[in-house]
From TrEMBL:
<feature type="domain" description="GHMP kinase C-terminal">
    <location>
        <begin position="273"/>
        <end position="346"/>
    </location>
</feature>
<dbReference type="InterPro" id="IPR000705">
    <property type="entry name" value="Galactokinase"/>
</dbReference>
<dbReference type="InterPro" id="IPR006203">
    <property type="entry name" value="GHMP_knse_ATP-bd_CS"/>
</dbReference>
<feature type="domain" description="GHMP kinase N-terminal">
    <location>
        <begin position="81"/>
        <end position="167"/>
    </location>
</feature>
<dbReference type="InterPro" id="IPR019741">
    <property type="entry name" value="Galactokinase_CS"/>
</dbReference>
<dbReference type="Pfam" id="PF10509">
    <property type="entry name" value="GalKase_gal_bdg"/>
</dbReference>
<dbReference type="InterPro" id="IPR013750">
    <property type="entry name" value="GHMP_kinase_C_dom"/>
</dbReference>
<keyword id="KW-0119">Carbohydrate metabolism</keyword>
<dbReference type="InterPro" id="IPR006206">
    <property type="entry name" value="Mevalonate/galactokinase"/>
</dbReference>
<comment type="similarity">
    <text>Belongs to the GHMP kinase family. GalK subfamily.</text>
</comment>
<dbReference type="InterPro" id="IPR020568">
    <property type="entry name" value="Ribosomal_Su5_D2-typ_SF"/>
</dbReference>
<keyword id="KW-0067">ATP-binding</keyword>
<dbReference type="InterPro" id="IPR006204">
    <property type="entry name" value="GHMP_kinase_N_dom"/>
</dbReference>
<dbReference type="InterPro" id="IPR036554">
    <property type="entry name" value="GHMP_kinase_C_sf"/>
</dbReference>
<dbReference type="InterPro" id="IPR019539">
    <property type="entry name" value="GalKase_N"/>
</dbReference>
<dbReference type="Pfam" id="PF00288">
    <property type="entry name" value="GHMP_kinases_N"/>
</dbReference>
<keyword id="KW-0418">Kinase</keyword>
Length: 369
């Protein structure tokens, strides 16, 4: 009989915020997220036989399933994110035994900061750690995405998991969603006397799923009208060839947004003052508001108030119809920008927004002891 203790440990994975590149992922384009300091932490241990047990400090109860055999549809609700990652890890050809997983996360849920990817990626690195499998960040990100798409049943792109896996302090994760290649781009606001404020608008999410599907369909129609495989392959000069006015505006958002991502990357990689990206953040917001029509009053008001309060650039981040706004501010303006947004909300009788600094942080891995 072995006296060796079963493998166990503590692993984490962060939430993320997207600096720029919205609704470009399903058009095979570019995104530029970074990992947040907010994380999901999983305390994991292998258990012999029986079944797996998962708990969350943010949920009641214990959920049990057999990780060795679990299949889509057998676990629903919050535990599907954990069971689904076990399933996807196994489907990728890795060994999965029964596990005890205790989850605790400070990533706000449903704010568009990807609490779901944080959970999946934390479970993914935990399973890899327990199995002694070397961590391939892109491979684990794909497993985590498969859990969300095929087990939970949420048709999302791969940005969230890639940011959670590849994030680094002081770096953006520049992702080409066509081939999943990643380049880390320097972005360290405090080193330049700046802060990137994340403002949770707390807007009520309305019709987001249906609108997301409608935008995807419009983008497919635009690509078909232009005869390109995806809008990634279109240029601004192509746009007049789209006859339908709405489809043309949708395409214009995606085409110009991809160009803005590349411009931000060129500026920051070239060592420019990060303040120079301000106008690109503003242009991204205008494009989402006017051409893609995915903003709502709560985010438009936050963006306008942040700019009026002295932010050098501001935009909605995430899929839209609520969620968060980011505002790049000189450190000395953080108080004024926060106060301006709070005042604008108070004036309208809206619940106060939650504001915190978003600083690029470490991606998923073992929790340092
Ligand atoms: P988000 O934008 O935060 O990723 P999603 O709807 O994609 O929003 O994912 C949120 C879901 O992820 C929650 O409803 C829950 O099922 C699961 N989840 C996130 N964090 C936790 C947690 N700490 N404990 C249990 N489940 C969680
Ligand atoms: Mg999510």
């Amino acid at each position: 009989m072995s006296t060796e203790a079963a493998p166990s440990g503590v692993w984490f994975a962060p939430g993320r915020v997207n600096l720029i590149g919205e609704h470009t992922d399903y058009n095979e384009g570019f995104v530029l997220p970074f990992a947040l300091p907010h994380r999901a932490v999983v305390t994991a241990s292998a258990v012999s036989g029986g079944s797996s047990r998962v708990r969350s400090a943010q949920q009641d109860g214990v959920v049990e399933f057999r990780a060795a055999t679990v299949a889509p549809g057998e676990v629903t609700g919050w535990a599907a994110y954990l069971a689904g990652t076990c399933w996807a890890f196994r489907e990728a050809g890795f060994p999965v035994g029964e596990v005890d997983l205790r989850l605790d996360s400070d990533v706000p849920v449903g704010a568009g900061l990807s609490s779901s990817a944080a959970v999946e990626c934390a479970v993914g690195v935990a399973l890899a750690g327990l199995a002694g499998v070397p961590v391939d960040p892109t491979g684990l990100a794909r497993i985590a995405r498969r859990a969300e798409n095929a087990f939970v049943g949420a048709p999302t792109g791969g940005m969230d998991q890639m940011a959670s896996m590849h994030g680094r302090p002081g770096r953006l994760v520049f992702l080409d969603t066509r081939d999943d290649t990643v380049e880390l781009v320097p972005f360290d606001p405090p080193a330049h006397g700046l802060e990137l404020l994340v403002i949770d608008s707390r807007a009520p999410h309305a019709h987001a799923d249906g609108e997301y599907g409608a935008r995807r369909a419009d983008c497919e129609a635009a690509a078909a009208a232009l005869g390109v495989p995806a809008l990634r392959d279109a240029r601004p000069a192509d746009l007049p060839r789209i006859a339908d006015e709405r489809i043309r505006r949708r395409a214009r958002h995606v085409v110009t947004e991809n160009e803005r991502v590349l411009q931000v990357v060129a500026l920051l990689s070239g060592g420019a003052d990060p303040r120079e990206i301000g106008p690109l953040l503003d242009a991204s917001h205008a494009s989402m508001r006017d051409d893609f029509e995915i903003t709502v009053p709560h985010v438009d008001v936050a963006v306008a108030a942040a700019r009026a309060g002295g932010a050098v650039g501001a935009r909605m981040t995430g899929g839209g119809f609520g969620g968060c706004v980011i505002a790049l501010c000189d450190t000395g303006r953080v108080g004024a920008v926060t106060a301006a947004v709070r005042a604008a909300y108070a004036e309208r009788g809206w619940p106060a927004p939650v504001v915190f600094p978003g600083r690029p942080s470490e991606g998923a891995g073992p929790l340092p002891g």
